[in-house]
Amino acid sequence: GIIILDFGSQYNQLIGRRIREMEVYSEIVPFNTPLSEILEKKPKGIILSGGPSSVNAENAHLVEKELYEQDIPVLGICYGMQLTAHILGGKVAKGDKGEYGKAHLDIVKENELLKGVCQNSIVWMSHFDEVAELPVGFELNARSGVIASISNPEKMIYGVQFHPEVSHSEEGGKMIENFVFGICKADRNWKLTNYIEKTVAEIKEKVGDQKVILGLSGGVDSSVAAVLIHKAIGDQLNCIFVDTGLLRKNEGKKVMENYGKHFKMNIKMVDASERFLSKLSGIGDPEEKRKIIGNEFVYVFDEESKQIEGAKFLAQGTIYPDVIESQSVKGPSAVIKSHHNVGGLPEEMDFQLLEPLRELFKDEVRKVGEELGIPHELVYRHPFPGPGLGIRVLGEVDAEKVRILQEADDIFIEELYKNDLYEKVSQAFVVLLPVKSVGVMGDERTYEYTAVVRSANTIDFMTATWSRLPYEFLDTVSSRIINEVRGINRVAYDISSKPPATIEWE
Ligand code: XMP
């Protein structure tokens, strides 16, 4: 496959996904992975990613020069191109102002990488430094104001200053394809149906006749993991579904119907809502609420898993981005998101881990899910935070507020589906504010809570914009919520982007 060295650009996972979409295996490894380890993977090509630092900085992130002498094609993207120029004897300078956004590509000399790419196509730039002098043996292939693309075709070394992996780069896909197939001659052998077969066989082999426990949340990752494992070992899989009382409306029922009845999985549903609510009583601080919910979850899960005698494995829906994030050597502009999944492995539990989705990107997990027969709607659900409605009822949580929020949220989501908008936004939900305001209904004065409708569009959940939902649609949602949900008399729409706001309110 193709190995991507990670220098910390926020677009790195996109490079990996683009290549996998071409049915070629790609793997993202930290930039300082020893060359010997990289070579053990027998890569057909190596991509050096973008990154936030400067090659001229004191502790610059570098690679061994020998990387360029292996007869393996190398493509440097943004920082990766600057790094290549720097290491091979060229010069990288601080530009006057940097460049951010769209630029036009002026091809001065076509090569394998730019084959078939139109003159003047739009490319996406995001950099401060620029290549000022080419290394010996290199030629200039394209400009965009700055040096946009260089190569040493004989040594199969290529560089682009822009980001071909982002969709704003009109012909970026073609360039990556040129690299992967034209230059690296990679094979198309990454197929998800093969992945399913291979993984099912591996699970069977690893688990033997032992029991496996899995915490089913109803979310995409744990569900796909469960169905995949179930396909391999049937009733040896024991799912535990904890109803925290902080889930979406009818969530428990839906999970039992879909996975219990339809897939005939062995699921124990634990109604722990009273425990959670009583632990939360009187607590208003968001972080404290998170901690309480997280601890309680582990506690309940631990108790339940002890009931399943002789279980040797704990299965988790860990996916590739989780793995990349935990291995990544992040530069100064490190990712802000602290990962906060409820239901982490209780430390004293003595299980072997089973993580059948560890190698897959989210879109691949979804494809595997559909391939396994999970309905489309379930596979394309929005993410839902572990602490659930516990952090969407702002401030102190009680059963009544949770009920009000569930009703309002359900209406919003139902309308999104009805109007074919659900899959056009990345995450949508309702938040209940502890603020009451005056209204009038019929001839009566009302004094009730305020609900906020929130919908975000994002690729990676690290930055996001609010969804430009049609006014007419928002009008319908607002009137339905106010008319149908007792306890709410006012609806607001959240028009904050992230940053500086976050997607959730707490
Ligand atoms: P924020 O609010 O940080 O959310 O912009 C980014 C993504 O993370 C989810 N999120 C959580 N997920 N436990 C989780 O499992 C949490 O405590 C938590 N807080 C936020 C959020 O729903 C969004 O998808």
From TrEMBL:
SUPFAM superfamilies the record matches: Adenine nucleotide alpha hydrolases-like (SSF52402), Class I glutamine amidotransferase-like (SSF52317), GMP synthetase C-terminal dimerisation domain (SSF54810)
Signal peptide boundaries: none
Coiled-coil zones: none
GO terms, molecular function: ATP binding; GMP synthase activity
Enzyme Commission code(s) on record: 6.3.5.2
GO cellular component: cytosol
Domain GMPS ATP-PPase: 190-381
Sequence positions that bind ATP: S217, G218, G219, V220, D221, S222, S223
Gene3D superfamilies hit by this protein: 3.30.300.10, 3.40.50.880, HUPs
CDD domains assigned to the protein according to its UniProt record, in alphabetical order: GATase1_GMP_Synthase, GMP_synthase_C
Catalytic activity, reaction form: XMP + L-glutamine + ATP + H2O = GMP + L-glutamate + AMP + diphosphate + 2 H(+)
Function in brief: Catalyzes the synthesis of GMP from XMP.
UniProt subunit comment: Homodimer.
Official protein name in the record: GMP synthase [glutamine-hydrolyzing]
UniProt source species: Epilithonimonas mollis
